[in-house]
């Protein structure tokens, strides 16, 4: 069932790949992005992959009037996939009010507009950070939500609470929260990928930037954790698999088969990989040697987190198809493309 879908933050890493997946399924996409953590060049990449240019609006979702005017301009928007949010944990600790304003006011203004519609679909970009260091592994959707370690994590928890309360009072509003584990990789065309501004906050861009010579060496934060090789364990999911999950979630909302009008799903591979395993996988899949050193633990890092994906597998009929080597190889191809573009500019 094709429809007109708003994708906020649609020029970002996960957003852009989801726009591609939606367009490939025949949906009409309108992107809102204020380009604060993305590039307008991504629009050309999406167009090159899909042979179709999505509508783009440069709007700051913190501006309530701009959000209102957007929905007046596009009254036929049927659903929203909401990615637009600040996401650097360290920055959120240093500037909490910025994170609360950006991540929560934008969500509230979108939901207020959707309440004016007879029916609306909403998919929220959430995170496994809501679980903190889970008591049991793998992590199911029933695991308790722990006190957030950062304002960023808190905005995801509060965001889900806001959606829960909204769903309670409006049965025609249907929402799904997707709790991602660790998205990595890039589109196989190397037209779009993860494009961190400044120093990367995530492991994989740091690895690829080190391998290409942009950074001297990779710091591995701690090798004395209670894991097989002493390094932290995470569940790394290919962004292509993640993007497809959003399309499947949208179709679930459209078919109206869900048991309640707000559901939560974990999105991961169900397998944890340590930092050293990721480094070995990168070297194996690319043939590149990666300089790294072991340094002290980083404050706030949990020991291990990986998903129990049974609910998403069963209820959504979705499962990951791509493995770690493939994801890292695609991230490397994208990194080389980024450097090539920088040299040509």
TrEMBL record:
Its EC number is 5.1.3.2. Residues 6-329 form the NAD(P)-binding domain. InterPro entries: NAD(P)-bd_dom, NAD(P)-bd_dom_sf, UDP_G4E. Its cofactor is NAD(+). One of its GO terms (molecular function) is UDP-glucose 4-epimerase activity. Pathway: Carbohydrate metabolism; galactose metabolism. It catalyses: UDP-alpha-D-glucose = UDP-alpha-D-galactose. It comes from the Bacteria. Keywords: Carbohydrate metabolism, Isomerase, NAD. Pfam families: GDP_Man_Dehyd. Homodimer. Belongs to the NAD(P)-dependent epimerase/dehydratase family. This is UDP-glucose 4-epimerase. It comes from Salegentibacter maritimus. The gene is galE.
